[in-house]
Specification:
- With about 140 residues, this protein is α+β, with helices and mostly antiparallel strands.
- The termini are far apart.
- The chain has 3 helices and 6 strands.
- The longest helix is centred in the middle third of the chain and has 17 residues.
- The protein has one domain: Thiol Ester Dehydrase, Chain A (Roll).
- A 6-stranded antiparallel β-sheet has the order 1-2-4-5-6-3.
- The chain is globular and about 45 Å long.
- This is Hotdog fold thioesterase.
Length: about 140
């Protein structure tokens, strides 16, 4: 796919944008930005586990929403804003340690909506969660 970004984007730009947010608090790390994808990971540790020792499903959704929202925000026209309309997530396999890594890619980049697919995998490369987010693209005020 061709480059989808309409703004300067890099791992450092994304990292700096999330200082002092839930992303930083949960230990998420941006890893790579390609022409049509963003990759980030979250640790499976005491900050992110639920009482049964598994990565909390909500944390998987935070990672997915972060990736999809960043994708939309950096691919919409200058001055426009991207806001979430809907997100779904199917939890396929639990993770008890290590990292869960997510990659987002656009499914649809339109004038007023965008749809992004996010696949999360454990350290063995197994899918732990698949998610899809729909974003509204708002025109400048």
């Amino acid at each position: 796919m061709a480059r989808v970004w309409t703004q300067d984007i890099s791992v450092q730009v994304l990292t700096d944008l999330h200082v002092g947010t839930a992303v930083q608090h949960l230990g998420m790390e941006f890893l790579e930005v390609g022409d049509d994808f963003i990759t980030a990971r979250v640790p499976v540790d005491s900050r992110t586990k639920q009482p049964y020792g598994l990565l909390h499903g909500g944390v998987s959704v935070v990672l997915a929403e972060t990736l999809g929202s960043c994708g939309a925000a950096f691919s919409c026209p200058s001055g426009h804003r991207a806001v979430g309309l809907d997100i779904n997530a199917n939890h396929l396999k639990g993770a008890t340690s290590g990292w869960v890594t997510g990659t987002t890619r656009p499914v649809h980049v339109g004038r007023s909506t965008q749809v992004w697919q996010i696949d999360l995998k454990n350290d063995a490369g197994e899918l732990t969660c698949v998610s899809r987010i729909t974003m509204a693209i708002l025109q400048p005020r």
